[in-house]
Amino acid sequence: MALPSPAGSPPPEPLPGCSVQIRHLNHFFGQGDLRKQVLYDINLDLHQGEIAIMTGPSGSGKTTLLTLIGALRSVHQGSLQVLGQELTGLTPRQLVQVRRQIGFIFQAHNLFESLTAVQNVEMAVELSGNLKAKRQRATAMLAQVGLGDRADYRPAALSGGQKQRVAIARALVNHPRLILADEPTAALDKVSGRDVVTLMQQLAQQEHCTILMVTHDNRILDVAHRLINLVDGRLESDTKPQAFVASHTQPVDGGVVVM
After folding, report:
1. How far is CA 176 from CA 54, 179, 206, in A?
2. φ, ψ for residue 250, nearest 5 deg
3. What is the reported pLDDT for 153?
4. How far apart are CA 113 and CA 96, in angstroms?
5. What 3-state class would DSSP assign to 101?
């Protein structure tokens, strides 16, 4: 059962232009004596058109926070508003309605191996009954991510970067206002990883959506407007990329090294 904010006050009014608004969010795993708190008093705003990257050590709660924002978990305590909708206290059916407005990109692609690229994208198209319209939208989105000539290829015939582009096309095909990405470059080489995040950056600008990306990949920090550092379930810092990189580097002979 979801609990109210610590002060017992009603949810705050949504801020204009704010895609995600979090106030005093706490989250727990387990019950009774095994109950363990994993997120502590998170307060965060993500604005329309903003690209935010969340960093932090493994086990710090990044994926948990991402899944809460994505309505994949129920909120335990505090206020979490996504696209103007308060998630605290929603039923599973209501959470599904919120998820339909969000684009998800995962490290493992989560593509159906038996389906072609265009069929994988079609699975996300919310047009019932009109198969021709579904195919047209899916094909157009694949072309937009540079895979127009790979629409009929199955995942086994695609490279890691191409699979991730299919996943991006699937996430964007319904023109979501919010995109959540969990380690989207972890399984990719340097060139493919850079291509994927550059593509996400370009499409975010064109679609005017908000992107929150969880990553350990220091190679892609420069695409972000903000870098959010989560440590042991607490929001430790919220900085511009230049400030983050400066505070996490130290001089060595012939250059700098990221700490």
Report:
1. 20, 7, 12
2. -140, 145
3. 96
4. 25
5. coil
Q: Answer yes or no: is pLDDT of 248 > 90.
A: no
DSSP 219: G
Question: pTM for the full model?
Answer: 0.82
In the DSSP assignment, the letter for residue 3 is B
Per DSSP, 15 falls in state P
Q: Distance (Å, rounded) from C-alpha 174 to C-alpha 178?
A: 11
DSSP for 126-187 reads: --SS-HHHHHHHHHHHHHHTT-GGGTT--GGGS-HHHHHHHHHHHHHTT--SEEEEESTTTT
Q: 81: phi > 0 → left, psi -120 to 50 → alpha, else beta; which? A: beta
- pLDDT, tens only, 207-236: 788 999 998 888 888 888 899 999 999 999
Question: Does an H or E element contain 61, and which?
Answer: none
Give me the half-sphere count of Cα atoms (radius 13 Å) on the Cβ side of residue 156.
3
